[in-house]
């Protein structure tokens, strides 16, 4: 009988476009006995798995939780001990608000070998493919990546520090907090900072809306922008063509009004 060698590999699937997974991540999928995959990992990647590979959906996204995190941790351990090579396929990068460390620790408690294969995080790649750089010389010297929903369901307290740092702010899982985010920017005198909401980034179904920080909720509703989406706030949004067009339209409207 073949000796089972338990191993758990965390694989970041990237932001959505299946071609944005790493070569190493793809090789891990091709050699997996079991794949536990998320809602935000592209299902096309499962086609690269061996024919006899067991594939289980364990995804979580806004308003949809198939399993609790504790249940997912137990499944990771159970499948590794039973089948051997388990790939935990997670959207973006496993360590960017992906609870990857908790899943790694669960496996390590049972002496299971672990590996981490980084993924392309949506925090950088989604603005990037839309020609919004998170940093730009003389515009933004850095960027903050913040969760819009902490463990207790609240907006991260880091947001106010990020706004005061006057750099690019990328907010993940923040669509339910748009009006709250807008109010904080307005209260701190930063309501006119350019902002973008990008839905289904890197996919053919991508939608993008632009405006200013104090109007986040309004332009999201007007343009029917929904999860999954990321929020980018900062002067770097001015590089996007849609924002430039918006500015030109506002200027033209102002001329007509006076």
Question: Could you explain how this protein is built, in words?
Answer:
By secondary structure, the protein is an alpha/beta fold. The chain contains eight helices and twelve strands. The chain has helices at residues 23-30, 69-83, 100-108, 122-129, 158-165, 178-187, 216-222, 241-257, and strands at residues 7-12, 34-37, 54-57, 60-61, 64-65, 85-90, 113-117, 143-147, 168-172, 194-199, 207-212, 229-233. A five-stranded parallel β-sheet has the order 3-2-6-1-7, sandwiched between helices. A hairpin with a 7-residue loop joins strand 10 and strand 11. The radius of gyration is 20 Å and the shape is elongated. The protein starts with 6 loop residues before the first strand and ends with a helix.
Give the N-terminus to C-terminus distance in angstroms: 85 Å
For the CA atoms, what is the radius of gyration? 20 Å
Uncertain parts: none
> How many separate helices?
8
Order of helical and strand elements: EHEEEEHEHEHEHEHEEHEH
Strand order of the largest sheet: 3-2-6-1-7
* Strand segment tally: 12
Structural class: alpha/beta
Shape: elongated
Task: Give a concise summary.
With 258 residues, this protein is of the alpha/beta class. The protein is 32% helix and 22% strand. The chain has helices at 23-30, 69-83, 100-108, 122-129, 158-165, 178-187, 216-222, 241-257, and strands spanning 7-12, 34-37, 54-57, 60-61, 64-65, 85-90, 113-117, 143-147, 168-172, 194-199, 207-212, 229-233.
């Amino acid at each position: 009988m073949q000796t089972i060698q338990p191993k758990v590999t965390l694989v970041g699937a990237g932001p959505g476009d299946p071609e944005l997974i790493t070569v190493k991540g793809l090789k891990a999928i091709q050699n997996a006995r079991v794949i536990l995959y998320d809602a935000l990992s592209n299902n096309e990647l499962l086609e690269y798995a061996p024919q006899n590979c067991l594939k289980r959906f364990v995804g979580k996204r806004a308003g949809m939780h198939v399993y609790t995190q504790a249940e997912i941790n137990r499944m990771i351990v159970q499948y590794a001990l039973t089948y051997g090579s388990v790939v935990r396929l997670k959207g973006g990068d496993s360590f960017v608000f992906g609870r990857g460390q908790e899943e790694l620790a669960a496996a390590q408690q049972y002496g299971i070998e672990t590996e981490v294969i980084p993924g392309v995080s949506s925090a950088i790649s989604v603005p990037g493919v839309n020609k919004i750089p998170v940093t730009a010389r003389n515009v933004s010297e850095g960027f903050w990546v913040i969760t819009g929903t902490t463990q207790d369901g609240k907006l991260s307290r880091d947001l106010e520090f990020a706004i005061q740092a006057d750099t690019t702010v990328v907010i993940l899982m923040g669509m339910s907090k748009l009006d709250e985010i807008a109010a904080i920017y307005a209260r701190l005198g930063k309501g006119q900072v350019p902002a973008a909401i990008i839905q289904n980034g890197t996919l053919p179904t991508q939608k993008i809306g632009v405006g200013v920080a104090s109007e986040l909720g309004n332009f999201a509703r007007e343009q029917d922008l929904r999860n999954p989406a990321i929020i980018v706030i900062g002067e770097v949004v001015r590089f996007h063509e849609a924002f430039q067009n918006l500015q030109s339209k506002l200027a033209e409207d102002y001329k007509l009004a006076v």
